[in-house]
Amino acid sequence: MRGAGRFAECKSEREWIPIMMETADRPRKLILKLDVHEGNIEQLEAMSCDEIFAAQERLYKDEYARLPDSPSSASATAIPIIAAST
């Protein structure tokens, strides 16, 4: 089933596989959405962007490592996060 409007170009996971394999050696631009709330806003404001990205990358790697049957090598679990400069 295809989407409508801005989602008209949505692809299924199966359709994405060949596209992602073709570009596997190229960096990807990711968007990082932070959950900012009263409990962490002061900490985030005190951190540099690089520190925030590094902390999120560690969090993602730790969570990914807990998934069943996850690759054990560090290179296989590396999740590159590329900050967009503005």
Describe the structure in your own words.
The structure is a single chain. The chain is an all-alpha fold. The chain has one domain. It starts with 12 loop residues before the first helix and ends in a 9-residue tail after the last helix. 0% of the residues are buried. The model has no long low-confidence stretch (mean pLDDT 76).
Notable traits:
4 helices; mainly alpha; 86 residues; extended
How many E strands? 0
Largest beta sheet, briefly? none
Radius of gyration, in Å, reads 17 Å
| Count of separate DSSP helical elements | 4
Number of domains: 1
Quaternary organisation of the protein chains? single chain
* Mass-distribution shape: extended
* Element order: H for helix, E for strand: HHHH
What is the strand content? under 5%
Q: How is the topology of this model organized?
A:
Elements: H1 13-22, H2 41-46, H3 49-65, H4 74-77
Summarize this, please?
The chain has 86 residues and is mostly helical. Helices cover 43% and strands 0% of the residues. The chain has helices at 13-22, 41-46, 49-65, 74-77.
